[in-house]
Amino acid sequence: MELVVASTIEEFLADEWNRLFPGELEDWTYYRATERARLDGFEWLYFGVRVDGELRAAVPAFLTAYRLDTTLDGYLRRVVGALACAAPALLRPRMLALGSPVGETCHAGFAPHSTQADRLRMLTLILDGSEAQAEQHGARLLAVKDVGDAQSALWEWALSARGMRRQPGLATATLALPYASIDEYLATLSRASRKDLRRKLRTRDALRIEWRHDLTGIRDDIARLYRNTLERASIQLEELTPEFFDNVLADLGERASCVCYWLGETLVAFNLVLLDGERLIDKYIGMDYRHARELNLYYVSWMENVRHAIEHRIGTYQSGQGLPQEKLRLGSTLSPNWLWYQHRNRLIDGTMKTAERALGLHRGSATTEAVSRKVRA
Description:
Elements: E1 2-6, H1 14-19, H2 28-35, E2 43-51, E3 54-65, H3 74-86, H4 88-91, E4 94-98, E5 109-110, H5 116-137, E6 141-147, H6 152-160, E7 165-168, E8 172-176, H7 182-187, H8 191-200, E9 208-212, H9 219-232, H10 242-252, E10 256-263, E11 266-275, E12 279-287, H11 297-311, E13 316-320, H12 324-329, E14 333-335, E15 338-343, H13 346-359, H14 366-376
Parallel strand pairs: 4-6, 12-13
Antiparallel strand pairs: 1-2, 2-3, 3-4, 3-5, 6-15, 7-15, 8-13, 8-14, 9-10, 10-11, 11-12
Helix pairs in contact: 2-10, 5-6
């Protein structure tokens, strides 16, 4: 087995990369579009394992400076944030993370014919390589971002043996849509939810909805609406550029759309979605918050995505992370994601472990822990 470490995904062929991730919308083209968007503060790495020249495993990765309070909320976030101001080098270490800041989960791809034992060996080789790259790039923190349920056991075997720890991240929400109409979907919700949703959707008549594949004439509006939403986010890791939206729409073609919501001649919201015949992924939304509540833009956007999926016989609507209780109310199921991490300095890592337990950080935020309990139940 040979480990390959690349700074651009173009060092791999698109077909050989995508073969390891069958049916994945966030594929070689998506990562290439992200790479070319030049997100500030990020460097890209890609790990692969070749056997007799054949690519058998691959994982994307990134380098960035990471605020340790990113996944916290409430009182703990304020405390750690104050400490970060006093000791920025300690509480904003350089991090190497497997996964992607713009990925739904950490995508570890393997050749279809590989056994579980093969996968564990290849993943171990990739983790060895990530530690060497962390040393080379001066990264003090090692992490794996958003390990999803499907591969949780494999990652746990590989990571717990290295002394890495995990905390719950934000769950991924998915909505199954085996329905022939919107009315069939609404019938699955509680009576109170149906009534509330129908009331909120009365504002749809005031809007013009447009599905498009480019940002011609609206690029500045998209940037403004995205920034409005970014500034309100309680948790943020990356800040996207207008080039990101341009690249994704141009490169993914029919597999990406920007859904635009117009009030007269004013763009008041947009939603970047990825889609194919099986799944529609809600990636990023931006809103004009002067109109968001009065026009119920979130709910109008939700129902527009549901309508489009049902009309095109797309069986799954993946609405991503955030607002878990509301998405449960709207019929979604939640799948837990896990963040694994370790400081490479043993003394600091031991101190972090002690502090995590003393402050309850090992349990994650109240929101994520509540979601995890509900999912496990």
